[in-house]
Design a protein that fits this description.
By secondary structure, the protein is α+β, with helices and mostly antiparallel strands. A hairpin with a 3-residue loop joins strand 2 and strand 3. The chain is 41% helix and 21% strand. It has a domain of 80 residues: Sporulation related repeat (Alpha-Beta Plaits), CATH 3.30.70. The chain contains five helices and four strands.
């Protein structure tokens, strides 16, 4: 009985420390300005505490994301004996022919080497590039994938 109580308290302690380590974000902190210009007005936010909790969960969840749902064009897929070398050559050839489109080399078990290109948010955008790429790579096709977040600073 004492052993169960001790294990429960230790588990509760670690759970509390884990949840406390996430941090808490207040909405008023998100809209705080660093400059002290006296001509700028003040913003007072009055809201339920649950909104701050949901906002903190949303920020914590999105910090752990590695990308977003999107589309890529697969131009090479093979599991042959020399697939690694051939995929490197295909990727180098693609980079020289289409320098503005990102390319990604990928290995999937049980031995498939794949080359996927582009970071397209919509299928329509990917289809436009697919028609261009198919002139050089006739076996290219669209695949749903996790793509990199778009760079919002360069448009």
């Amino acid at each position: 009985m004492i052993r169960k109580f001790l294990v429960f308290n230790i588990a509760l302690f670690f759970l509390f420390n884990l949840s406390h380590a996430q941090g808490f974000v207040r909405t008023s902190d998100l809209f705080r300005r660093s400059d002290d210009n006296s001509r700028i007005g003040r913003l007072n936010i009055t809201q339920d505490q649950a909104i701050d909790t949901l906002l903190s969960r949303y920020i914590f969840y999105n910090k752990n994301l590695k990308g977003m749902d999107g589309w890529r064009i697969q131009i090479y897929n093979s599991s042959s004996r020399n697939a690694r070398e051939v995929s490197a050559k295909v990727r180098a050839e693609f980079i020289s022919k289409f320098p503005g489109i990102a390319s990604y080399s990928r290995f999937d078990a049980p031995g498939y080497y794949k080359i996927r290109v582009g970071d397209f948010r919509t299928k329509t955008e990917a289809t436009k590039y697919l028609l261009i790429i198919r002139r050089v790579y006739p076996n290219a096709y669209l695949v749903p994938d996790i793509i990199n977040f778009p760079d919002l600073n360069h448009k």
